[in-house]
């Protein structure tokens, strides 16, 4: 169990530990990370670490939860001013790709969670999908999205964003088959983003009203 800070200074210290842990886990991986490395980077005493976290597993899980909270907030805020569901999709995906470019640890740490902490991995994706499902249900009720299973659609849409982001944000060079050493791309290329959005919009757009032009009187 993680200890909640009781003072503003404690809150800052805990945040420094989480920031350092995010960096260490992303750069060297869970198994090569250590509490000593985390506290050294955070410039916090080793004993202080245990005031807030029981151990390496506990802070790893908290890093996953923190990243999840921040990416969901970024997407929600971006989509808030959208007039329609399709506009919200566009704004939300842009925010997701921007967050990923600024925090490449999101991909690296979530992929480690598959083996290190399956519960944290499931929490991360489930929280994102649950919000997505509710948004799709509301859009269906408003006639902005075609009839479809919102749970299946939410998982499918998240998969689209996940892999597009990995290929064009986390990996660097177009046509590269693996992670590039030069670092993450700052933006998904506009032509890639537009192609992805056309795919999504065609999948979600409500069915057109029946064409009445071919009917005859009498």
Task: Give the secondary structure arrangement, pairings included.
Elements: H1 8-28, H2 35-42, H3 46-52, H4 56-79, H5 85-102, H6 105-116, H7 118-141, H8 150-170, H9 190-204
Helix pairs in contact: 1-2, 1-4, 1-6, 4-5, 4-6, 4-7, 5-8, 5-9, 6-7, 7-8
Briefly, what is this?
This protein has 218 residues and is mainly alpha-helical. It folds into 2 domains: 1-54, Homeodomain-like (Arc Repressor Mutant, subunit A), CATH 1.10.10.60; 60-204, Tetracycline Repressor, domain 2.
3D architecture notes:
This protein is mostly helical and 218 residues long. The chain has two domains: 1-54, Arc Repressor Mutant, subunit A (Orthogonal Bundle), CATH 1.10.10.60; 60-204, Orthogonal Bundle (Tetracycline Repressor, domain 2), CATH 1.10.357. It has nine helices and no strands. The longest helix has 24 residues, at 56-79.
Shape: elongated
Look at the helices and sheets and give the structural class. mainly alpha
Distance between the termini: 76 Å
H and E string: HHHHHHHHH
Number of domains: 2
Please bin the fraction of helical residues: 55-70%
Q: In CATH, what is the class of the largest domain?
A: Mainly Alpha
Uncertain regions: pLDDT < 50 for 5+ in a row? Answer: 177-182, 212-218
Global mean pLDDT: 89
Beta-strand percent range:
under 5%
Protein name: TetR/AcrR family transcriptional regulator
Pfam families: TetR_N
Organism: Arthrobacter hankyongi
InterPro entries: DNA-bd_HTH_TetR-type_CS, Homeodomain-like_sf, HTH-type_TetR-like_transc_reg, HTH_TetR, Tet_transcr_reg_TetR-rel_C_sf
């Amino acid at each position: 169990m993680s200890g909640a800070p009781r003072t503003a200074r404690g809150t800052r210290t805990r945040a420094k530990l989480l920031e350092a842990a995010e960096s260490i886990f992303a750069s060297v991986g869970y198994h090569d990370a250590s509490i000593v490395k985390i506290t050294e980077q955070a410039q916090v005493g080793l004993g202080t670490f245990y005031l807030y976290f029981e151990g390496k597993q506990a802070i790893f899980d908290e890093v996953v939860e923190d990243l999840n909270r921040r990416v969901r907030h970024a997407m929600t805020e971006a989509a808030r001013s959208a007039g329609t569901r399709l506009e919200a999709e566009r704004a939300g995906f842009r925010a997701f790709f921007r967050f990923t470019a600024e925090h490449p640890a999101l991909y690296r740490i979530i992929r480690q969670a598959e083996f290190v902490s399956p519960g944290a991995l499931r929490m991360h994706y489930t929280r994102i999908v649950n919000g997505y499902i509710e948004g799709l249900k509301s859009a269906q009720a408003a006639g902005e999205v075609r009839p479809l299973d919102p749970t299946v659609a939410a998982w499918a849409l998240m998969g689209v964003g996940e892999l597009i982001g990995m290929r064009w944000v986390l990996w660097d060079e177009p046509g590269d088959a693996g992670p590039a050493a030069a670092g993450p791309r700052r933006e998904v290329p506009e032509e890639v983003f537009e192609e992805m959005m056309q795919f999504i919009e065609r999948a979600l757009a409500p069915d057109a009203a029946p064409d009445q032009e071919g009917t005859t009187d009498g």
